[in-house]
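Trying the structure run again after the queue cleared.
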Amino acid sequence: MTPTAVRSRAALLASVAGAMLVALDGTVLLVAQPDLRSDLGATVTEVQWTSTAYLLAVAALLVIAGRLGDRYGHRRLLCTGVLGFGAASAGIVLAEGIGPVIALRAAQGVFGALLQPATLALLRLAYPADRLGRAVALRTSAIGVAAAAGPVLGGVLVTHWGWRAVFLINIPAALAIAALTLAVRTPAVPPVAHRRFDLTSGVLLAAALAALVHTLAGIPDEGWTGTRTGLGLLLSVLLGAGLVAYERRSAQPVVPPAVTRSVPVMASMALLLTTSGGLFGALFVVTFFLQQGLGLDPLTTGLHCLPLTLLMIAGAPAASAALGRYGPRRTAITGQLCVVLAVLGLSRLTPATPWQLTGLVLAVLGAGFTAVMVTATGTVVGDAPPGYAGVVGGLKQTAMNVGPALAIAVAAGLMPLTPSAATGPGHRLLPVADLAPAQALPAVAALAALGLIPASLLPRGRGLARTPARVVGCGDRQ
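Done. Tokens:
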């Protein structure tokens, strides 16, 4: 095996393992939260903050973390992030109260933000353009496997060893990934990657994203017309406007012009936001319909959604092949159309709908989502201007966080959920009419349909871009 092949394999393993660690942590915690609440005597709101604190930290820092990786090296950032993630997990295992757990979950979010852009950037550095699509597809499949395995693994761990076990398993995994990362050798990045960026821009970006995600996460409880929602959205707009104005004057912007001028990269960001919103908005509504409306237990609900998971895993290689044969534009448009049509199909669900039909529609949703994910992620990584793979990876992960938050906020605003319905399982059933998907999913489908616009802007040719240096402005000195 040649040194290049060894380097590529090591980078792929480190990237996949890091991404799987984060994906598994997110879904395994959902099963552990009731036991955590009982053991620590926490309120439902406090338990929700164990997820919210993590999400806020990740969303606020992803782009900054990618920029740091571009400057200091993605291998170093991945190693730092995964070791910090493991250390925070160890702290949670030893925590005696809900307050320290929330604080340490926020710390996990900080380190999770450091490692996520690096996992994509390593692939960009280690793989040539003609082989990058397959690596991205494998990474996508691995994330699907980890996310699907989370609830099952969490159930086993919590049943036998309690909620702390779901964090305990992160420690050896983090140590193994760090050791693997140290074995990765990547080519030297262009000198432009080592240029400094304006700290004020970073603070404004982090504040704007944190305010937006926090506001969107609170809409299911506050509603679109609530005072907190209005103030949060206003603050997000003001901070965003301040960021844009400052970035235009800054000599070292946190999001360089070389990135913002790249049409394929920015189109892929918009596509990922709308597509992830379509998937998670649909799942939010369908889960409530199946559990709160029809009275299905979580396991039966999960089995109903199994076709979606299977197609997300198995569809990645097929999406990679389609990308190589038909090009990013046609693959993305086809996948996005599948997402839109599937969401519209789910809006027709009724108590009399056969489970086979529900499974078929969810399978189409999973296949479409995977096609878009592989295409947009491959385009983002492949078209990243030289030296900016980290910041592009951070933008990609940010879009994947904001999209679901936006779609769930849209869906929740159109579903007349009672306060008890939004707090978790175990409460009374709601009238099926109140949870009818037809009330919310057309709006989610409309959000997903907006993704057809950026999908049409992706490159027409086969495979990924092979000459990212031709992006306008990528040679600018900042």
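Residues 418-433, 465-478 have pLDDT under 50 and may be disordered. Worth checking whether this holds up in the mutant runs.
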